[in-house]
Amino acid sequence: MYRLSKLRFGFPIGLFLMLFLDGSISQVFSTHLFRTSATMVSHLVVLWLVCAVLFEDRFDIPVARWAAVAGAVFDLYYTGIFGIEIFIFPLVVYLTRVLVNYISPNFLSGLLIYFIDITLVEALSYLASRMVHLTSMAGSAFLVTTLGPTLALNLALFVVLYFPIRGVYNWLK
C-alpha cells in the first residue's frame, strides 16, 4: 500500500524540509533561542518522525530507515562528523512504536509520547557530549537551562503543528 501512495515521495520530502527548517529556525531566532540563561533547541525532525508513526495506519512507512538517513544528514550537515543523531532518531521511532502499542494515538497521547521522545533525544545527546568531553555542564544545569526550555518550545511546536501535519499526512494517503 505504501508503494501506491503519495507518502512514498511526500514523507522523505517532508522529513528533509523539517531537517532544514530546524536549522533555519535556529539561525533566524538565535538571539531568542540561545541565551546563557536558557537554550531552546527545535526538534522538528523528531516531530515529523513521531507524527509518521502516529498517523501510519495501514501504511508501512520505512520510518526507521529514513530516521537513520536523516540522522546521518543531520550529523554531517550541522556538526560535520557522524555523531549520535544517527542512532537516536531510529531509537525514537522504535520507542514511539512501542508506546503506540500501549497507548491509542490521539492528540494528548501524541503530546505525551513527544514529551518522552524529546527528553530522550536531549538526554542522550547530553550524555554523549559528556562522555567525549564536549561539555562540562552539570546535570542539574542541563535540566534547568537546556531540557526545560527545549521541552517548552517543542511541546508548543507540537500543539501548533499537530493538526497541519495530520492534514498533510491525510492528503498524502
From TrEMBL:
BP term (GO), one: regulation of cell shape
Lineage top rank: taxon: Bacteria
Pfam families: MreD
Gene Ontology CC: plasma membrane
Protein name: Cell shape-determining protein
UniProt KW keywords: Cell membrane, Cell shape, Membrane, Transmembrane, Transmembrane helix
Record flagged with keyword Transmembrane helix: yes
Keyword Zinc: no
Subcellular location: Cell membrane
Similarity comment text for this entry: Belongs to the MreD family.
